[in-house]
């Protein structure tokens, strides 16, 4: 490989950076709006005790497990706009890859990185989740390097204190650390008390937040919500989205395990299996698996090539085979990343009701009652219609409790009933007199791949709109994307 490999990886890294930036700058995460507004509230007014954005669960004791990230989004947006946020997000992802792949393996990472890049590109954007990628990469490097672990382990709790205030993914990180250390203890048949102390201190460190133990409860609400995995696209299991690059990378991982099983560090192997299982259970976790799989395959490739040195014929055949792998990886990457990359070139705002929101801002005074809209548009409305509260948005799918009178025990369950046509009771309860909805399936599908990835249910439930018409609701606005219905007196 030599200089050729380094040049290929360098050019691909630059290309990936451009792609990450393009995704972030030309698409809009469904949750971006509420992240931005939360950051503004936290900076200007402090921490809200209850939900400030919905009329269905306004008394719910809201815990923001990404408050530092939200403040950062708000301040960067204030000073640098979307371009600045896009640049920061692309740098974070590139740093995650640079940390995950040890420098001596960069030359050998081209094929596995290209196979896994499709997953990273389609999950990237201005999202707090990408911070998990970077912090987990740092944690994995420390965990699997014994010298680094002995040197830096007492700083790990500090890292968890920071992580717990950045995003709820700290729970996954703690699970990875606990798994790795526990497997090591089983192998040695004894507990390393210094490591056990690090684990205990890390838990305590995560409690250094305004919510205390409630932060863990908030994350548990989501992790324990099995309904979520069959309702929201990014939480769905692997079989709902075919990703050939990830499976080819997994095939290479199996080859690694088969040939290097006896020399493979067991804790690393178990963590690999845990992250693979996490990726299978939920699409949003697949990037975490990619971050551990790529360096393992790169290391195997390097070791395999080194073992052939001195054998000219074997080296020649290996180069031919590696060339074939490169061709396959390029083809897979072109298909998996090229299609969404082409779609986002059509514009960031097409999948959101920009024109309809402008209409509502100009004419809302002519309407009575509250607005009901798509779950996928909730975050956008919090941003663009700040004076109006929403029925539901991306923070709320797993919120469930025994609510006070007049509020919802579980807004997402109520939402699902409404879009199936069982809306009269809920609309009467909350005085809902306007509905903002997607106009047609084909128009939403061409609006952008992010809606396809993050939102499952808003394609168009014709029974919902048809029943609105049957009950006397009147169409008062429509454009190429959205339609607004008003309830009669």
Short characterization:
The protein is mainly alpha-helical and 489 residues long. The chain is built from 21 helices and 4 strands. The protein has 2 domains: 2-30 and 63-344, no CATH class; 349-486, Rossmann fold.
Rg: 24 Å
Low-confidence segments, ≥5 residues, pLDDT <50? Answer: 441-461
Task: Outline the biggest β-sheet.
Answer: 4 strands, mixed
Please give the order of strands in the largest beta sheet: 1-2-4-3
Number of folding domains?
2
Spatial gap, N to C terminus = 74 Å
Q: Structural class per helix/strand content?
A: mainly alpha
Arithmetic mean pLDDT: 88
Tally of extended strands? 4
Question: What's the helix-strand series?
Answer: HHHHHHHHHHHHHHHEHHHEHHHEE
Instruction: Please count the helical segments.
Output: 21
Range of strand content: under 5%
Helical residues, percent: 55-70%
Structure explained in plain terms:
By secondary structure, the protein is mainly alpha-helical. It has two domains: 2-30 and 63-344, no CATH class; 349-486, Rossmann fold, CATH 3.40.50. It is built from 21 helices and four strands. The chain has a four-stranded mixed β-sheet with strand order 1-2-4-3. A hairpin with a 3-residue loop joins strand 3 and strand 4.
């Amino acid at each position: 490989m030599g200089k050729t490999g380094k040049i290929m990886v360098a050019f691909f890294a630059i290309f990936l950076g451009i792609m990450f930036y393009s995704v972030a700058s030309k698409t809009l995460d469904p949750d971006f709006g509420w992240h931005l507004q939360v950051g503004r509230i936290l900076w200007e007014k402090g921490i809200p005790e209850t939900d400030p954005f919905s009329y269905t669960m306004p008394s719910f004791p809201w815990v923001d497990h990404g408050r530092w990230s939200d403040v950062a989004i708000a301040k960067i947006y204030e000073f640098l706009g979307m371009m600045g946020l896009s640049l920061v997000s692309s740098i974070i992802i590139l740093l995650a890859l640079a940390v995950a792949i040890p420098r001596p393996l960069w030359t050998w990472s081209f094929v596995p990185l290209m196979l896994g890049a499709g997953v990273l590109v389609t999950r990237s954007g201005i999202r707090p989740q990408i911070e998990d990628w970077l912090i987990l990469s740092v944690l994995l490097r420390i965990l699997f390097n014994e010298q680094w672990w002995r040197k830096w382990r007492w700083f790990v709790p500090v890292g968890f204190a920071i992580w717990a205030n950045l995003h709820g993914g700290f729970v996954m990180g703690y699970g990875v650390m606990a798994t790795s250390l526990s497997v090591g203890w089983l192998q040695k048949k004894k507990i390393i008390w210094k490591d056990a102390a690090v684990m205990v201190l890390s838990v305590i460190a995560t409690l250094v937040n305004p919510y205390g133990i409630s932060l863990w409860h908030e994350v548990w609400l989501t992790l324990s919500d099995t309904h979520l995995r069959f309702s929201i696209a990014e939480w769905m299991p692997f079989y709902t989205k075919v990703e050939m690059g990830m499976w080819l990378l997994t095939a290479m991982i199996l080859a690694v395990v088969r040939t290097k099983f006896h020399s493979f560090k067991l804790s690393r192997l178990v963590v690999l299996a845990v992250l693979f299982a996490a990726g299978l259970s939920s699409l949003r976790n697949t990037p975490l698996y990619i971050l551990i799989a790529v360096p393992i395959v790169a290391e195997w490739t390097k070791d395999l090539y080194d073992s052939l040195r001195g054998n000219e014929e074997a080296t020649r055949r290996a180069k031919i085979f590696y060339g074939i792998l490169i061709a396959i990886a390029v083809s897979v990457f072109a298909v998996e990343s090229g299609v969404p990359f082409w779609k986002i070139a059509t514009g960031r705002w097409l999948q959101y009701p920009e024109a309809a929101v402008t209409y509502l801002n100009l004419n809302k005074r002519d309407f009575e009652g509250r607005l009901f809209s798509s779950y996928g548009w909730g975050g956008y409305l919090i941003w663009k219609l700040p004076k109006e509260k929403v029925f539901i948005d991306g923070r709320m799918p797993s919120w469930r409790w025994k609510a006070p009178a007049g509020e919802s025990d579980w807004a997402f369950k109520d939402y699902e009933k409404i879009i199936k046509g069982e809306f009269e009771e809920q609309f009467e309860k909350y005085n809902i007199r306007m509905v903002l909805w997607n106009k047609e399936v084909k128009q939403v599908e061409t609006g952008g791949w992010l809606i396809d990835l993050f939102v499952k249910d808003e394609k168009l439930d014709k029974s919902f709109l048809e029943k609105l018409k049957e009950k006397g609701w009147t169409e008062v606005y429509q454009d190429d994307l959205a339609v607004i219905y008003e309830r009669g007196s």
